[in-house]
Amino acid sequence: MAKRIDVTDLNVYYGGFKAVEGVSMTVEPRSVTAFIGPSGCGKSTFLRTLNRMHEVIPGGRVEGKVMLDDQDLYASSMDPVTVRRTIGMVFQRPNPFPTMSIYDNVAAGLRLNGVKNKKTLDGIVETSLKGANLWNEVKDRLNKPGAGLSGGQQQRLCIARAIAVQPQVLLMDEPCSALDPISTLAIEDLINELKNEFTIVIVTHNMQQAARVSDRTAFFNLKATGEPGRLVEIGDTTRIFNNPTEQATEDYISGRFG
Amino acid sequence: MSTVTGVSAADQAPGPDGKQPLQGDRASTGRFGDRLFGGAATVSGVVVIALVSLIAVFLVVQAVPALMNNSESFFTSRVWAPGGEKPAFGILEFLWTTVTASTIAMLVAVPVGVAVALFITQYAPTWMRRPAAGLVDLLAAVPSIVYGLWGLIAFAPVFKPVQGWIESALGWFPLFAPTGISGGTIFFIGIVLAIMVLPIVTALSREVFDQTPIAHKEGALALGATQWEMIRTAVLPFGRPGVISASMLALGRALGETIAVTFLVSALSDGSPWTWSLFNGGETFASKIANNAAEFSNPGKTGAYIAAGLVLFVLTFVVNSIARVVIERRKAFTE
Amino acid sequence: MSTATDRRVPDDQVAPGEPVTPPGGRPGRDALSEMSHPHRGRMAKDVVARIVMWAAFALAMVPLVWILGTVIGKGFHMLTTATWWTGNQRNINSDDFGGGARHAIEGTLTMVGFTALIAVPIGILTAVYLVEYGRGRLAKAISFTVDILSGVPSIVAALFIYAVWVTTFGLGRSGFAAALALVLLMIPVVVRSTEEMLKLVPNELREAAYALGVPKWVTVVKVVLRTAFSGIVTGVLLGIARVMGETAPLLILAPYTKNFQRDLFNGNFPTLPMMINQDRGDFALSTAAERMWGAALTLIILVLLLNVIGRVIAHFGSVKK
């Protein structure tokens, strides 16, 4: 249940503004790939193009190719809704649906797409909550509002919601940046478990986090403000952190800028 | 059906049609539901445009024949005899009454309304702010016919001595010259309209005053400004466009107010002499139309009233457009 | 929503308590010297301003108390008469006491109910278009016309319906024609309040739904409208309250009847505002005046009831963060 993503020569635009330029990379299945880089380097923007979420922002478009195994995500016959069902996403700030209970939140993706069978839903909700290491904390209050949980629990709820639709890939856009250190640790542990099942891409500002959770790391940078972001290099995390090829990577990792 | 495999059990939606635009908001897809719902939303919006255009078109189309037959000058005549063989009608009296009464309403409602808004946002103790705002809003919830009734039975008798006092003190000035009319004078109607539109001025001003950046306010206070100086240097300049547009919206309401004015107005007899006095009577556009609704007997006669209504429509259109432009400009500055 | 999602300032870079910069053009040295010796004139002005603001508020309360006091004082006993809530005005003349208001209450509720039935779907869908779909010139045009519509005086809306319904189509005046005019007045209220509510729904919720592979229209219906539901209901109730008291369209389009009349499509139609208007010429008669105050109080009660219900829904239905 995990697929490889191949990106070739991808440019991302918002209206007339070129946000990301010329990215080519491969994201390996059943592994964690971390995107790091300074603010504004386009790593989140690029992440959103992997499940076509950039298109919900007016003017967002891409040039280039993104393949999920042998399928072109940007083929004209490809439905963006289907793409997003296959490639899930977790956001920076936990965003459970405020009108829904914990149960309903996890079931939302299925229900909104027409699954009504109670047994199926019960099963998937339980598996997903267990998968997100949240089941034991919430199993007695599944009908309470999801917004009543702590920030860290809410984020795990959002992860449970994302994996409930059984995606191939899970994209995480700075999932811990709004959380305290203990909740962050819980999410990082969870990522380690999830990679057995999913292809995971995580954007992070925190280099220690990238070093802790990822197998491969991609460093993004931009030449100057207003210039498009670029992929500087990608490789095994240990190599990127210990022996980067590019000077810019080393400067960033050693804290000289960013 | 797209061929991404291993998709969730939920994937029963119809396939893509591949005809999406190449650019822009593609959260909306070619799905049937999306096309249906998005289409319905678009149609509703277009219906609103159509309705407003139709209002203008119908009023113009039905006013023009009557205007062609009019033997008087439409804008400068005070005669109103749209029936009969030789229709003759002009709107000067309505225009004068409508505009003057609304101006009086603004002169009273804007300063008081702004002061009330400042009171609620800056001066009132915190516990009092919400209830105070609620009370002012309550004034807006009172139906206008009730204002008419109250003005007619309760307020007019009380106002009569006030008018007498103003006439005796300032009667030498043409605007306050006695005319022998009391009760439904232009001045009195202006005051009632002021009370009616006060909540509009207050509600919108309150909103902009509340948005004054705390940094501006604290900046002024940190320099040793008194509260009033802080308001003058930080709150009022920031809120000015909001106050202007609020006043314009209120003016629009005052110009078009119908039933309260209809209750209060003293119609002038035909051929009564022209006077600049605010203590004169006279119909507004709205009250003239409302009072004569029963007389819409033939197209020619109805057309004359519709022509009057058209002028009122244009007046409120202009006033509201100004309000809109002011708001838009402010947005451009703050965003 | 910024265009590039990457440009967020990371939490650790937000300096706590950013230095406050005063807006430009503030006097420097003078202010300082005055500060150490508070100027009496400045202080006096401050006190005067404070008094003026309190006085303005008190002044604004005068008509409110006066109006409500008069309406309740003069109208309440009508509401306690046996026939008020059950009877109509048939065979009751201006100089007869009493009679009922039930025909007018029913008429008013029927008419605004019908108005809402037409105006609410159009209003909500238009707001959905403006917030969720609209871009570019069409959205601007719609938004502009909604503003224009909200400024159209009720008498002009009534004239327009008259010009279409009676003059052009040759149909008779009726409750339905008046309801159509009320629709024009209600649409902008519903559009604007719904729009406000939809804008309050955080974008993150839409993104969350999209990221789950939910089509846009399902997202709008089941997530966005669902989240904004109570606010929308409140806006609709306030819109109904607003048109309930409108009288001008009724004067032009729906002549009053003293009888029970439930048929919106044919003939005269009873409503509370027109019941008040009916006795206008005879306000000097105490019997007529009492009836007018009674009907006015009934109308105010209905309007306030809608306002209160709306606010209660807004209060308890609002999503707690």
Mind sketching the topology for me?
The complex is a heterotrimer of chains A (258), B (335) and C (321).
Chain A: E1 5-14, E2 17-27, E3 32-36, H1 43-49, E4 60-68, E5 71-72, H2 80-86, E6 87-90, H3 102-111, H4 118-131, H5 135-138, H6 151-164, E7 169-173, H7 181-194, E8 199-203, H8 207-213, E9 216-222, E10 229-236, H9 237-242, H10 247-253
Parallel strand pairs in A: 3-8, 3-9, 6-7, 7-8
Antiparallel strand pairs in A: 1-2, 1-4, 4-5, 9-10
Helix pairs in contact in A: 3-4, 3-6, 4-6, 6-7
Chain B: H1 32-69, E1 80-81, E2 88-89, H2 92-123, H3 126-141, H4 144-170, H5 186-210, H6 214-222, H7 227-256, H8 259-264, H9 285-291, H10 299-334
Antiparallel strand pairs in B: 1-2
Helix pairs in contact in B: 1-10, 2-5, 2-7, 3-5, 5-7, 6-7, 7-10, 9-10
Chain C: H1 29-36, H2 40-79, H3 102-133, H4 136-151, H5 154-168, H6 175-200, H7 203-211, H8 216-227, H9 229-244, H10 248-253, H11 272-278, H12 286-317
**Average predicted confidence as pLDDT of chain B:** 85
Cα Rg of chain B = 27 Å
The count of β-strands of chain A is: 10
> How much strand content do the residues of chain B show?
under 5%
Alpha-beta content class of chain B = mainly alpha
Order of strands, main sheet of chain B, comes to 1-2
Task: Give the terminus-to-terminus CA distance of chain B.
Answer: 43 Å
- Within the CATH hierarchy, at the fold level, what is the topology of chain A? Rossmann fold
Largest sheet of chain B: 2 strands, antiparallel
Structural class of chain A: alpha/beta
Q: Percent of residues of chain A in helical segments?
A: 25-40%
How do the SSEs of chain B run, as a string of H and E?
HEEHHHHHHHHH
Oligomer: heterotrimer
> Which CATH first-tier class of chain B would you pick?
Mainly Alpha
For the record, give the distance between the C-alpha atoms at the N and C termini of chain A, rounded to a whole number.
Answer: 36 Å
Apparent shape of chain A: globular
Helix content of chain B: 55-70%
Radius of gyration of chain A: 18 Å
InterPro entries (chain A): AAA+_ATPase, ABC_transporter-like_ATP-bd, ABC_transporter-like_CS, P-loop_NTPase, PstB-like
Protein name (chain A): Phosphate import ATP-binding protein PstB
GO molecular function, one term (chain A): ATP binding
Keywords (chain A): ATP-binding, Nucleotide-binding, Translocase, Transport
